[in-house]
Amino acid sequence: MQGTQPDIRMPPPPPGLSQVKREAERAKLSEIDRSMRVAGLLFVLSAVVWLMVGTVFALIASYKMHNPEYLAQFEWLTFGRVRSAHLNTMIFGWGNNAIFCVALWLMARLSRSQVRHGGFLVLAGILWNMGVTIGVTGILSGEMTSVEWLEMPMEVAPILALSYAMIGVWGIVTFSHRQTGHVYVSQWYILAAIFWFPWLYTVAQVMILFVPARGVVQPITNWWFAHNVLGLWLTPVSLASAYYLIPKVLGRPVYSYYLSVIGFWALALFYNWAGIHHLIGGPIPIWLQSAGTVASVMMTIPVIVVAINHHMTVIGSFGTVWQSPTLRFVVFGAMSYTAVSLIGSAMALREVNVVTHFTHFTVGHAHHGVYAFFTMIMFGSIYFILPRLIRRNWPSAGLISIHFWSCALGITGYVVALSIGGWIQGLEMNNAEIPFMTVVRNTVPWLTARTIFGILITVGHSAFFIHLVWMLLPERFRRVPSSYDSFGADPIA
Question: Is 434 inside a domain boundary?
């Protein structure tokens, strides 16, 4: 777990006393897990159901990119509706439900405080998923807005706002009742995210939909919201998970608490401005474009700091990382965070942006961040948290391997295909001698590869879903190993 190195000058406690303390600590953690059990299970189940729904929409949208006639006879399955449904199910359905479980569980564990009145969390979770269901149905029925990542009908926003308020307050209340004197860096990230998300969502809804701003203020607000949902909502919770799980599973403290604090404040300072670089060349003030570029380049500071901290914590224990299902996903996600962030900083440079803008390179970059970084860390977090909530082992090491390799290879191929294809697409679009339809035809092989790798990702999601259902089946329907094998799961503690 996170913290400072123990004082080696102190004599070791008597073996009997140490054992009693360990048992008392284990009992306390079990009580905390029990207080989060029903709400946590609701969030996990909801997240995985939305993951599977979003995966179906993703495959349909991907196939339509190189075969537009596919399902064209169904109005509710047109590309625009399916793609928007995919985005919203993955962000508000899968992503937010996963965050609610992981963030609240981490806050409770690190605060050594039980989640009080968990029934309100369950009610809020039901309300949230009802809102997402209504919103996605509205998108498919043609009642969507034209604002990316805010496509759900305006009437859904109050439902989501109310349910989020009920959930976010519980994170703050849990922190306020903490039994520890030290505030861990994971708690910093989670608390910040709890306040950042409603600020982003409310400002975007008001300035774009409810009381629309005029002119170019709307696209500026849209990119500010869309980019910061990743940087100030998905990213903080993912980093909080990595900062907790890597030291926890390895049984060693994080390399440097001070580096982690620097990384937190640098993220808070620079990321808020970074999204504007997507509007380079647009009809917005040059100073604002330059500010976005500078902020994006400065984001290399928190990224490098986090990379150093994670690497130095893991160094010498790569065998453990390979054996642990939790760390395999989390370390993959942490490495992806470094890669996608540095690529994002490069994309903010005008010389690079002129090639990548309006191409599939940007689509690949978005999936690199939201999936390879955020989603993979959430997978690892759920593998660690769920056995502690329901006190059951994951039944199959084989399904975990299928899940990891299918998703890791699938998203890697997906990003590489769209990055190469998008770069070629950008170069060709900047060449006035190449007809536009030639450019379109030349992207088809890369889009076909995107669909193939998407199918591979779907295999991983299906393995995860089957494994989750298997784990939750009654005792007589599932085989539970007597103890965790070293490859299949992490010991409960």
Answer: yes
